[in-house]
Amino acid sequence: MAKSTSNNKTLAENRKARHDYFIEESMETGIELVGTEVKSIRLGKANLKDSYAEIKNGEVYVCNMHISPYEKGNIYNRDPLRDRKLLLHKSEISRLLGFTTQKGYTLIPLSLYLKNGRVKVNLAVARGKKNYDKRDAMLEKAAKRDIDRQMKEKSKY
């Protein structure tokens, strides 16, 4: 039996994004980084919490993504919260621009991972949830958990 191996290794994840937003569509993008940032990300020192992406002058940038300075980087370290450019084709950028011009839609990075030695960002087009949507999702999750628990107990006997 052949074992399928994936070359993707998740380095950082934005867990709160799925709680706060409805994910409409997601895509894989490259990101422009300097060497010390890549080393710091590989050590797991990246944080996607409260980060978002915006389109400026026909280019997509990730804002508010924190990458801690590399300890051995000395003068080559950059600002941890600087805006970082995402690498996309013009057609992809224009499609994203069409989404973000609609009311309520935004671009959110869901995860940061390695693919064949390169750092990639999973970028999602998201629509914000209201508080009642979040409560409904929590109730559904709790109900599913209870049903699974009951089924597990029934299968024991």
Described by the principal axes of the CA atoms, the overall outline is globular
Oligomer: single chain
- Helix % is 25-40%
pLDDT < 50 stretches: 1-5
Structural class: alpha+beta
- Total strands: the figure is 9
Gap between N and C termini: 33 Å
Largest sheet: 7 strands, antiparallel
- Using only CA atoms, what is the Rg? 19 Å
The amount of beta strand, in percent, is 35-45%
Q: Write out the strand line-up for the largest beta sheet, numbering strands in chain order.
A: 1-8-9-2-7-5-4
- The total of helices stands at 4
Overall pLDDT: 85
Return the string of H and E elements.
Answer: EHEHEEEEEHEEH
Write the layout of secondary structure elements.
Blueprint lengths: L7 E6 L1 H6 E11 L3 H8 L3 E2 L4 E5 L2 E5 L2 E2 L16 E4 L2 H11 L4 E11 L2 E11 L2 H26 L1
Antiparallel strand pairs: 1-8, 2-7, 2-9, 3-6, 4-5, 5-7, 8-9
Structure description:
With 157 residues, the protein is an alpha+beta fold. It is built from 4 helices and 9 strands; from the N terminus they run βαβαβββββαββα. The protein has helices spanning 15-20, 35-42, 90-100, 131-156; strands at residues 8-13, 21-31, 46-47, 52-56, 59-63, 66-67, 84-87, 105-115, 118-128. The chain has a 7-stranded antiparallel sheet with strand order 1-8-9-2-7-5-4. Strands 3-6 form a two-stranded antiparallel ribbon. The chain is globular and about 65 Å long. The two termini are 33 Å apart. The model is unreliable at 1-5 (pLDDT under 50).
